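>> received
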Amino acid sequence: MAALSVAAVLVATGCQSGDVQGAGGASPSSGKVTCTKVLSAPARAAMERIAGIAASTKATYLGDPQGAADGLVAQYDAATVSEYDYEEFCGVRRGETGLPAARVRFSLTDEAPGGEVASIFKRYRMGKTALAGAKVSVLYFECSSKTFSLGAGATVLIRGEFRATNEPSEPEDAAREDTLRVVYEASSALSGLLDCESHAGLPSSFTMPAEV
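>> returned
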């Protein structure tokens, strides 16, 4: 698998919002594993701030966390992964219809970026590495799990990406923390769905990590 380019990176909340059938590339939530259950209230609030969804506007969550986890396993086991073969995890939109205003998605890769990164990012110590921007953050982490290789087990490098469609209205540093919080929580949830050993090397809870 070729490493994914950081340049290719680009796409929140009232607790009353429900997961519904998605649009614009998102899948409907399946079974009991819904976006509003795998993402905490602080993470959903961060998604809403970055997505620009006002408290007075209904935030509708869409996605299929379990389907995304299953899709990554299927890709690995079938050796059919391409660098742009994303699995949509969760998204949020304003109201009942329309495209997601922000979303999280995952893919498999064979290398985390090193050296210089795009100027929109700052690098942080989380997982293998984390790149946080004001509207997009990327988290790379390793998952060792019996779920892969048809139950035999494997260690897989996963790339998580959170993206909003519009520039956030909050200050840049606050926005970086919000985007990184969301991709961390989604990655933590994915780690649980994949039964990754040692929580995939991710911290047990979110605090803003040190900058590299």
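>> The two ends are 26 Å apart (CA to CA).
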